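Summary for the steering committee. The consortium agreed at its last meeting that each partner would contribute one worked example illustrating the joint modelling workflow. Our contribution is presented below. We chose a case with several input lines so that the handling of multiple components could be demonstrated. No manual editing was applied between input and output; the record is shown as generated.
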Amino acid sequence: MENEKLYEITAYTENQVGLLSAVAGIFTRRSLNIEKLLVYPSRIEGIHKFKIITRTDERRVKAVVAQMEKKVDVVKAFWEVDNERSHKEKEQVEEFLARREEQNVKL
Amino acid sequence: MEDKIGTKISGAEILLEQLLFQGVDTVFGYPGGAIMPVYDKLYGYLDRLHHVLVRHEQGAIHAAQGFARVKGVPGFVMVTSGPGATNVITGVADAMIDSTPVVVVAGQVTTGLLGTDAFQETDLIGMTTPITKWSYQIRRAEDVAWAVSRAFYIAGSGRPGPVVLDFTKDAQTGLAEFKPCRCNFIRSYVPDPEVPQEAIEKAAGMINAAERPFVVYGQGVLMSGAEKELGDFLDKADIPAGSTLLGLSALPSDNPHLKGMLGMHGSIASNIMTCECDLLIAVGMRFDDRVTGKLDKYASQAKIIHIDIDPSEIGKNIPVDLGIVGDARKVLSRLTPLLDKRDRSAWECRNAECDEVERTRVSDPEIAPSEGPVNPGEVIAAVAKATHGDAVIVTDVGQNQMLAARYSRFTKPRSFISSGGLGTMGFGLPAAIGAKIGAPDRTVCLFVGDGGIQMTVQELGTVMQEKTGVKIVLLNNNWLGNVRMWQELFFGARYSCTRMLNPDFEMLARAYGIRCENVESREELVPAIERMLADDAPCILNVHVREESMVFPMIPPGKELDQIMLNAKDWYAYGK
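What follows is the complete predicted structure of the assembly.
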């Protein structure tokens, strides 16, 4: 495929049993091969982080990230072309969680 | 409930207390080894929880789906481990693709036996992860109330869907203090996204600038309770609309803006207007391939606005000019005040010519033939007339479904229940049972073929035991009709394995103590329908319909929406 390149997908998640297979299933269903996978505690307390490198095109990487975010225990997911990373994700997740906490207080 | 709060009770009893706290009053279920502690406790709760004993677990989940769809609350299913759990999987997948809120509790072996291939152990979480919104294994009595409250919150909020709880036997028997749990917040899950005002304003600008806007709406309108808001939106700006299969009954059939159902067997007008509009506004729908036909040609002349609560649907199948992620009712109620009041009557009347062709070439010959065998569409139109469009219509899958969608009439929302995305044959009978239990004061009428009814025919036992007053209209043609039709049209009339030798349905009905009438001729049809509707008892109408029945109009799979077959030979002469 001409438009295929390596994409890096990052997901910030709750630390839940079974989430790895749920995330892997999203790739399997679309016949996407995972080139590299890292799962580890993020620098945000209590939040885990997935880093996945996959070769695909932009339309599909967007769909995969949307499906990942749809999982109840995924806080946020991002995609970037592998060599153009912006490293602003942690701040975005922290901002998201702070906003959610405010909304929780309002409920 | 009060006397249980703060005292140590078993996980099984906590489940039942928490169900009552959630407002659950009906359980569709089937007992078995790994769920027996819960069934034992249920014995003391049967005055508060109505347990419907189905005849197969697939029946339980489809009944819960029918119940959920008619009431707008999650249906509840309880089954045992192993085969009990695997038997609900078709329904879980069905509920996922059709966004139906159901919570399934399945028994599981004791935690110490997990992973040992114990008797009736299956990896239910592994099997249901791709087809649920959430699936979770409860391993401790302390977690029961939390897990159940979270399950109901997830199933019923946002874009609804199924949740599976795998309940180990030791968590059922273990003791814990019961505190009712209410879940209305999960930090990683945003069921009702906020819509920025700029997006609303941008949409209003696009709509006000459009000459030929067209609305395509789906079940999201029903799920968000946006029926009135959609009507007001269409009235204010004078915009025509088409409905998806699952959106049917969101607008009453006589709404002047409604141009019919979209897609493969939809109205000519709604498909042609999709091809001619300059702005397509999609509300609470997901551009299924049965709606779009050939994707790259779908409304390619138009700008597209897509309003849906599920962000992953925006741009999934169709690139859009503006995506709005939000609840249909909230978005429409903010959008309508910004719309210019317009008279678009010339565009609104675009359907007249299409409708005339459809009526004379397709509908009249189907529903009002002068001679020959009874047509299935004729039966559906006669039931619509006899019920004044007030009934809940449940369908199975196939020709019965498409014809019911085309020829039923609706006056109230949540009146059309059908398996759309998964297309599950056998859905109809149990779903109708659940719908009648959920809406006991309404007439619930099932249209089902001779193939589909035999996939879950054992649920006649549930009808018998529960005395569920479903009206079962069996459109009996001794074929797997829809596949036979495709064989005739697309596979050189090679009728491979679609002819059915059927049992005597009247004798079968008698075995279950259910009244049954055979209808062989046109003269018998209307009087038999009137007798069927005269009381609230279950009844089967076994109607012998035309054997080689067809469903038209039809856009063949993969074709563009303006390529419409009027019958097996003739195409709609579009643009000629």
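The longest strand of chain A covers residues 5-14. The mean pLDDT of chain A is 91.
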